[in-house]
Amino acid sequence: MHEEISEHIKKHMDLLLGQTKSYLPFIKTAFPSWNLTDACFSLIVGNAFSVFLSQYTMRLISPTDQDLVEFGQISSQYREKIQKLFS
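Below the sequence we write its predicted structure tokens.
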């Protein structure tokens, strides 16, 4: 993955992680039976994936399989951070 895309994704996910309390009411209402860690993780990764794809689109390139693997690796690090918020 291009370094600037990787850094942009990390900063974006950090921002979303820092704003967890602001969208918790939405998650609790929209997904009442979901585990809060799972719901937050899904929301953050879904949003970050959209940003990931937008970064490639703006550069008129397509992500490779390796880029997708790296996105998954970055995302999994945030799962642990989100889990700590609710433990």
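Helices lie at 3-18, 20-30, 36-58, 65-85.
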